[in-house]
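Good morning,

Attaching, inline, the backbone tokens for the sequence recovery test we're adding to the shared suite. The designed sequence is right after.
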């Protein structure tokens, strides 16, 4: 019986397959690492000011973006502080927070946020993700 139809895998093809598998595993590990880094909260806190801009922007992936004016009148001696603008993002799935920001535009608000190390383009333009809005009286 002739076994000429059965060919053994050549060492060259075996090396090529191993390299391809290692390449794809490396890509998967790098992607998982990047996703993990994008989810880590570097810091959290609150900022108080007046919301001067809120928008829903983007071509393919719409994100909620806004600006908070941190300047104003100091309560101690009544001096006027210069305008300082703080840019923030609201997660796409958090439409209730975005709607609250829209309703409170022009009012003095406190925004609670988490700062991330890095974010994907569909997560917003800034590293600051607002999670809660509180109107200051």
């Amino acid at each position: 019986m002739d076994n000429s139809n059965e060919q053994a895998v050549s060492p060259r093809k075996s090396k090529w397959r191993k390299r391809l598998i290692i390449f794809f595993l490396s890509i998967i590990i790098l992607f998982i690492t990047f996703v993990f880094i994008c989810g880590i909260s570097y810091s959290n806190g609150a900022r108080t000011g007046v919301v001067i801009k809120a928008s829903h922007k983007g071509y393919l992936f719409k994100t909620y973006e806004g600006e908070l004016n941190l300047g104003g009148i100091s309560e101690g001696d009544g001096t006027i502080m210069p305008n300082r603008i703080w840019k923030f993002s609201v997660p796409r799935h958090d439409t209730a927070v975005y709607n609250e920001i829209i309703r409170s535009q022009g009012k003095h608000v406190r925004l609670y946020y988490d700062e991330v190390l890095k974010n994907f383009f569909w997560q917003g333009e800034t590293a600051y993700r607002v999670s809660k809005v509180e109107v200051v009286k």
